Amino acid sequence: MAVNLLKKRPLTLAAMLLLAGQAQATELLNSSYDVSRELFAALNPPFEQQWAKDNGGDKLTIKQSHAGSSKQALAILQGLKADVVTYN
Fold this sequence. Notes:
GO terms for molecular function: molecular carrier activity. By secondary structure, the protein is an alpha/beta fold.
């Protein structure tokens, strides 16, 4: 059994190194009120570009969820999995 593990280790290590060298994709959901829709539509693309520069080419995608204040707050309370909540 020890021989089999030794034979598999180089393959496992090679696979880990290949995966570690690849750019990672990150996706965030920003939950916010309707009034900030245009603001974040303008801010997100340059932020995503800077993220890629600062993180070795890793891709960041920011998705937006906008609605009225009561609807967004209720969605969070009911389980909306927002990564960022920007309410005023």
